[in-house]
Amino acid sequence: MTLRNQVLIWIAFLVVLVLLLWLFRGILLPFVVGAALAYLLNPLVNTLQRWHFNRGWATAVVLFSVITIFVGMFLVFLPMVGQQIIGLLQRLPRYVSDLQELITEWSPSVNEWLGPERAAQFQTSINDLAGQALGFIATLPAELVNIGYTGAAVIGVTLLTPVVAFYLLLDWEGMVRGLQGLLPREHKPEINRILDDIDKSMAGVIRGQGGVLLIDAAYYATALSLLGLNFGLAVGLISGLLSFVPFMGFAVGFALSIGIALVQFWPNYWMVVAVAAIFMGWQFVEGNILYPKLVGSSININPVWLMFALLAFGALFGFVGLLLAVPLAAIVGVLVRYGVAKYKSSSLYLGLNGNALLTGRHGETDDVARAP
To answer: What is the secondary structure of 8-22 as a DSSP string?
Structure first.
């Protein structure tokens, strides 16, 4: 089979896969979450197997332990977190109004600093932003109610996800052997190298970035609560859980926290500075210590392309697309880097002379390797 036909077959396979994802996007959520959970827990199951556990018992023990921990945390923290989130949503319109009143009080100082014309533009911009925020807050309860109409889907995900994860974990080795048996024999070593790179990227996404997300949520929630910020627990969890979108968690959490701090603590501006320092300081820690240690260079995707992937997959597949966006972007990144490497070693890039020179160098290397 020619290279051209192979490329066409792989492209057709990817097109069919995307069409199937789009066609079944409404029922994919428990399978996507279950597959991610199975991928995340497979190393633990393998560890228990090395301790002479049967694969079925190892899967049951690991999954039961994780579900028990999750349900326990859910029952302990849900009342407190739910109360704070509901209180924050109810209080947000008042916070926006209070901020507008503060800005009105600062108007003379702003006029003196910016000048009358620029101060008027600034005031108009603030009012527009406040109006948009109030509009969003007004529609948010309705959106939550609409989500509530599909509450059966939430129950379905809750029940199906552990079942999907259990059976995937139980037959993980069999599935891997089956996929290995389907690989073209001639290109099997090269495909395995690509799959290893994809596995490293997926580990960085699911295990590394998931760990960063949880640590972010725990830090922000704890720090803001200890500082005494109103609804600090809810704001901190929102900031951390939105961190899977580059800069989104920081931006939303920072804006919410500073707005609440201005209304709550003013004129004690040192408390506002302390809230800002919590976010600024953690951004430095996350970018220079946490992210390199847990994620490293395994994803290797520009944040701009990552945000594009989130928007594109979210528009195509909805909430499932948001869950799939980062892993699929990591896989595409691996394939693109592989394609670029193949292109740079091809005659299309090197030309006939360059290709002959490259072949000659390989021949010289082989001759040297064969020399006694």
So the answer is: HHHHHHHHHHHHHHH
